[in-house]
Amino acid sequence: MVEGWDEGGLRVLRGVLHAQDGVALLAALRRGPVREVLQLAGDGVAGAAAQNLPGAAEMAALFLAALQERGFRGDEELADRLHAATGDAAILLLRPLAVDLEMLAMLLEGDPAESGGRIDLSTGECWPAFTDELGPGPEAQEDDDPERWLYVPAPASRAGYQDMELFIEEVEDAALADRLRLAIGGRDAFRRFKGVLAGDERCWSRYHRFRDERQHGRARAWLAEEGYCPCINFFVEPSLGSYPSGPV
């Protein structure tokens, strides 16, 4: 594997995404390979491109090339959004929803006993299914209006196992890859896989980024099937330099 993102770079990237700073986002993306953060930062790049921020069109082109090469579930939907943002395609016929893909992924693929739930279409907030069992609580638990709520299933899936298989294919250390292949055979595959990775901190971090990208992509694809896409709006004003761009 090529040198990937370090924790400092990821903190900066998440920070500018949270701050909705398009200029700082484009600078932060120079700190590591875009292939590892396509789903994480793709909506932000689309927002920056839609605003014609300097360098945004070039970054969108890098993202599009990486998405086409990678081809994970959800990558096609993100590519469509980037094409629309750069004016290369018609505007998407998907309703924007201010939903956090990470939270949605947790509903779709979390602990089987706690996954599933619903999304408040007025706010984009995700409510796990188990919160409905905690009593009256917020209005979310008293209102079954289908115009307000989008219900999220908790499907049984081999997606997590497939994530491990695909990650192993990217491990360049042949000995480590062989140990990981042995680990995922039979019962307790996840536990054994994590046990092997625990001895290699760098590879462990890369696996988590890989898994997160896969999960976020599946969440995006599911959302598109329901007629929605994540929305993010960046300020047009240039960054004041709160976030350093780091090494190129």
What would you say this structure looks like, in words?
By secondary structure, the chain is mainly alpha-helical. It has two domains: 7-94; 99-230, no CATH class. The chain contains ten helices and five strands. It has helices spanning 7-19, 22-28, 38-50, 56-70, 75-85, 101-109, 159-170, 174-183, 189-197, 201-225, and strands spanning 95-97, 117-120, 126-128, 149-152, 228-230. A three-stranded antiparallel sheet has the order 3-2-4, with helices on one face. It has a two-stranded parallel ribbon with strand order 1-5. A hairpin with a 5-residue loop joins β2 and β3 (126-128). α8 (174-183) runs antiparallel to α9 (189-197). The longest helix is centred in the last third of the chain and has 25 residues, at 201-225. The chain starts with 6 loop residues before the first helix and ends in an 18-residue tail after the last strand. The model is unreliable at 236-248 (pLDDT under 50).
Instruction: Using the CA coordinates, give the radius of gyration.
Output: 19 Å
* Largest sheet features: 3 strands, antiparallel
Shape assignment: globular
Sheet-strand content, in percent, reads: 5-15%
Poorly predicted segments: 236-248
> What's the arrangement of strands in the largest beta sheet?
3-2-4
Order of helices and strands: HHHHHEHEEEHHHHE
Give the averaged pLDDT, no decimals.
Answer: 86
Number of separate structural domains: 2
Number of strands: 5
Percent in helix: 40-55%
Per DSSP, the total helix count is 10
